[in-house]
Amino acid sequence: MALKCGIVGLPNVGKSTLFNCLSNAKAQSANFPFCTIEPNVGTITVPDPRLNKLEELVKPQRVLPTTIEIVDIAGLVKGASKGEGLGNQFLANIRETDAIIHVLRCFDDDNIVHVDGSVDPVRDKEIIDTELQLKDLETVEKKIQGVLRKAKSGDKDAQKELALLEKYKEALEQGKSARTVAVDDDEQKFLKELQLITNKPVLYLCNVDENSVKTGNKYVEQVREAVKDENAEILVLGAKIESDIAELETYEERQMFLEDLGLDEPGVSKLIRKAYELLNLITYFTAGEKEVRAWTIEKGTKAPQAAGVIHTDFEKGFIRAEVIHYDDFVEYGSEAAAKEAGKLHIEGKEYVVQDGDIMHFRFNV
């Protein structure tokens, strides 16, 4: 499932440092703007303690986690919507992602130049929001021109689309992102084609210094206040600390480092899980002696389509799904014991797969 999460932000806020921690693909990290020109794409393993538990119980020959793609996009600057600072290229790269991790600098460091001369994460956020909103406004206005004639001729669909476009135009002109506009079921079908950048789900990542990793700081509080009316989440993380953790060779060394900081796990693990949720993804498992494997599907996926993620033949010839919920599997310790306790459910084509389901598909082609 090739869904991508894009890391965006102004130059020198810690995007590439963060990306390096997330991925084996090493983005150049340097103290000047536009260090990253082409977007770097990394395939990231999603940490899931449930896999470890299933491995312990099933003792398979191998374990395969699920993954997502993270894209490190070069730093945007004021004027990007008009092509400033390679803006058109950057905006096109953002458009191709499915969700956005917006990195905000929330630390002081005289050795790291800020592109605007001072640390102010709310101003930084507004600069990028404005550029993305201006690009979306341009898209909406072009679309209105194309739909107007059809709508005037009495085309019902065109009239509905025009009404939605006008709603977006009004919001964007007021400096609001497209995601703040309420959309009903009838209007949903027009959204995919529009591909508005500010309609994508967003996670604001506050990049802080070591002393602020646990409790945050004044900059984090400013960001919280600024985004309180948005449909968005905030995560506090120290990219420099994550970089230090990534350089440690053994699991034991990493755990000791985390304990010294009073943390229970690396921040990037939380970030990856947040990105996974941001993309509206869930995991189901297959578990057998040969392998325990995590599979990625979108929330709301029905059993035949979930089976199709394994192989298209599974979907075409779908007969039924045998399902054990994760908690039941762990409680009883095996498929056989869960089945004996009546915890194995037979589900048909309308079953909506739940996060953590352990599944076996019956099919015939």
Category by helix and strand content = alpha/beta
Average pLDDT works out at 86
Assembly category:
single chain
Helix percentage range? 40-55%
First-last Cα distance: 23 Å
Could you tell me the number of beta strands?
A: 12
- The 3D shape can be described as flat
Instruction: Trace the largest sheet across and list its strands.
Output: 2-4-1-5-6-7
Give me the strand/helix succession.
EHEHEEHEHHHEHEHHHEEHHEHHEE
**Number of separate helices:** 14
> What is the CA-based Rg, rounded?
23 Å
Main beta sheet: 6 strands, mixed
How much of the sequence is in beta strands? 15-25%
Output the keywords.
single chain; 365 residues; alpha/beta; three-stranded mixed sheet; 19% strand; flat
Kindly summarize this structure in a few lines:
With 365 residues, the chain is an alpha/beta fold.
Plain-language structure description:
The structure is a single chain. This protein has 365 residues and is an alpha/beta fold. It is 42% helix and 19% strand. The protein contains 14 helices and twelve strands. The chain has helices at 15-22, 49-58, 87-95, 121-152, 156-173, 188-194, 218-227, 239-247, 251-261, 267-278, 303-310, 312-316, 326-332, 335-340, and strands at residues 4-8, 40-45, 62-64, 67-72, 99-105, 202-207, 233-237, 281-287, 291-298, 318-324, 345-347, 358-363. The strands form three sheets. The protein has a six-stranded mixed sheet, with helices on both faces. A three-stranded mixed sheet has the order 3-9-8, sandwiched between helices. A three-stranded antiparallel sheet has the order 11-10-12. α1 (15-22) packs parallel to α8 (239-247) and α4 packs antiparallel against α5. The longest helix has 32 residues, at 121-152.
